[in-house]
Amino acid sequence: MDALSETLRIVRLVGAIFLQGRFSAPWCYQSPSADAAAPLLEPGAERVVIFHLITDGECHVELGDAPPLHLVAGDAVLFTQGDAHRMASTPGLPPAQGARLDEVLARRPRRLAYGGGGARTRLVCGYLACDARLARLLLTGLPRVLRVHVRGSEAGDWLEASLRYALAQGRSPQPGAEGLLAKLAELLFIEMLRLHMNTPGEGRSGWLAGMGDPVVGAALHGMHQQPARAWTLDELARHAGSSRSVLAERFQRLVGSAPMQYLTQWRLLLAANLLRHSSAQLARIAEQVGYQTDTALSRAFRREYGAPPAAWRRSQGSSARR
Predict the structure, then answer these.
(1) CATH code for the domain in which residue 268 is found
(2) Is the pTM of this model over 0.90?
């Protein structure tokens, strides 16, 4: 199993489609920042990432002072830093004055339909909630607005067709439509990452760029497949078919950390996941993630998470109950 699949298998993701828009030109929709929307979308989530998929027509994305980004049907955009932004038929239009955000998101997926009666655009808006460290791992090095074209690939065409079906089912009395949309939101997010990772580009950096590098990708694969192994830089280099110096330089340039530092972060992310979602004893967790003793794991965990494992586990249980 590759490192991306292993990461997504280990760490719990929560997604949903929260808005279905049907607009006619001229129109402009103001999307809030992820931080503002998070308490309403997924209370208690450490990080929320918002994305849109254009299913019909075209529109523009406006983000701060950056030039407007033109989108066409089949384009999906992911806001990696959670920025507030505008979606509009033409750049420069004022956003519509609508209901308060809590009223809009009280019912999901909310259907919005408005505009001046001109050219039509349809889009769906979704989010993914995850651990803040996982978001940092996956999204570091990506542009603030990540655009990919999902239409034309087998997975993308299937996702679009499935979203249309699930949204139609949401208006029927049959149960399960909300759960179906949640899974499709997760799949769309993963497909966007995969498409970006497999699209050639110069000067890219970040975890996904490292995944696409033959040397760094092999080292990442080894660490993710065998986190408990007593890796050294020499062993990682041999596993990647490289020298120590080449691996260290390329890993630092692409991923942004040294290989052994990354291994520590990955082990602690695994430990946090086990603490949150299992009742395993700390000694057992330490063994699973590559620490010789629970004391060694406790010291490292406290440095990273600001609390000893037992206290952190209790706090996560309290948050879940709330």
Answers:
(1) 1.10.10.60
(2) no
